[in-house]
Structures are given as structure tokens and as C-alpha cells.
Design goal:
Blueprint lengths: L1 H12 L6 H21 L41 H4 L5 E2 L2 H13 L14 E10 L2 H13 L4 E8 L2 E11 L2 H13 L5 E6 L3
Antiparallel strand pairs: 1-5, 2-4, 2-5, 3-4
Helix pairs in contact: 4-6
Length: about 200
């Protein structure tokens, strides 16, 4: 008889166990609700980040009759005349233009092929690199010398910083420039073709 009463007690009094993942989900949801209440309330201002400038409630706009707080003086603007500056500087020549000039030179064969016609107003250069350290420029110059190229290092100051340019040339014609650039490219140097005025 005792066994019957025990079976009835377990049947009527036992409830199915709640899985652990449900308790975990309830705990996470309760934690989120508490965090939102905490951060949304006025008693936790230090945890909220205030982004941007805060308005000044005492600030008033100046009236039209009052002078502005900051005077805007008409400063003379610097006028850059690019048409007079550019001829004094070097100009990068695109590869397509070099090829076109080389083909044009080949069709207009000079009377003496040993001495190509040199333009009096311009000369061609190749820049193998520009480095802030003189040691790096010397290393590139040495690598070019091993390959049979004669390079010069030209220090230039731009915006207060000195750059050491590794340059080859001058070349008398676009065809010589194109051949030297192709030879450099075959040896892993991506050189830039430049045209300089005679004043350089």
C-alpha cells in the first residue's frame, strides 16, 4: 500500500523539468532589460558618451548693428600663374606619347644617324626613384651601375622635406628614352619619363 501512495505522489506532485537553455535565455533577457534601464536612467550619466559639441543655452546671436566677434579681413590672395611656373618645372611624359614621338623620329630619319637631333628647348630624363634617405638612393644607384646605367642623385626639398631623386640621362631623343625605359623595366625598375626645359 505504501508503494501505491508513493506512485500517486510522484504522478500528481512531479512537474516536468525546464531545460537549461530556457533558463539561460531568461537570464540573458533579464540582463539586457536591467542594462537598458540602467543606461537609460539619469543616474548613470558618466557611462553615456556625449558626442559633438554641446549647446550653450546663454549664447545669443549678434544683432545686425553689432560688429562681429571675429573680423574677417580681406587678405590678399596669392595668385599662382601656372603658365609661367610650368615651363620651369619638369613634366611627366606618358608612355603613349614617348612611343608616338619615337615613331615620328624613326620616320623622320636625320641626315646623320650617328648624331640624333637634340631639341634646344627640352631634354629627356628617366627617374628611377625618389627616396627620403640618401642611403636608399645610393643603393638604387649602385644597382643601376651593376646593370650598366649611369645615374645621378639629385636632392630636392619639397615642403621642407628632402628627397633624393635617382635620375638617368639626359637622352637626346624620344627613341633613346623609350629604349632605356624598356631596358629598365626588363630589370625591374618602373622609371618615370620626364621632360625638362633648358633652364633646368
Amino acid at each position: 500500500m505504501a508503494s501505491r501512495s508513493r506512485k500517486q505522489a510522484t504522478r500528481g506532485g512531479s512537474r516536468p523539468a525546464v531545460p537549461a537553455w530556457i533558463w539561460l535565455g531568461v537570464g540573458v533577457l533579464l540582463g539586457l532589460v536591467v542594462a537598458l534601464v540602467f543606461l537609460g536612467s539619469d543616474w548613470a550619466p558618466m557611462l553615456r558618451k556625449q558626442t559633438g559639441p554641446q549647446p550653450n543655452p546663454q549664447a545669443v546671436a549678434p544683432r545686425e548693428s553689432e560688429p562681429p566677434l571675429v573680423k574677417t579681413e580681406d587678405k590678399p590672395r596669392k595668385n599662382y600663374d601656372f603658365y609661367s611656373v610650368l615651363p620651369e618645372m619638369e613634366v611627366v611624359i606618358p608612355d603613349a606619347e614617348i612611343s608616338a614621338k619615337a615613331r615620328a623620329e624613326a620616320t623622320q630619319a636625320p641626315t646623320n644617324p650617328a648624331t640624333p637631333a637634340v631639341s634646344a628647348s627640352a631634354r629627356y630624363l628617366l627617374q628611377a626613384g625618389s627616396y627620403p634617405s640618401a642611403k636608399s638612393a645610393d643603393e638604387v644607384k649602385a644597382r643601376l651601375a651593376i646593370l650598366g646605367f649611369v645615374a645621378q642623385i639629385t636632392p630636392v626639398t619639397i615642403n621642407g622635406k628632402t628627397w633624393n631623386r635617382v635620375r638617368l640621362g639626359p637622352y637626346a631623343s624620344a627613341s633613346e628614352l623609350e629604349a632605356a625605359k624598356a631596358s629598365l623595366a626588363d630589370n625591374g625598375f618602373n622609371a618615370i619619363a620626364l621632360k625638362e626645359g633648358s633652364g633646368q
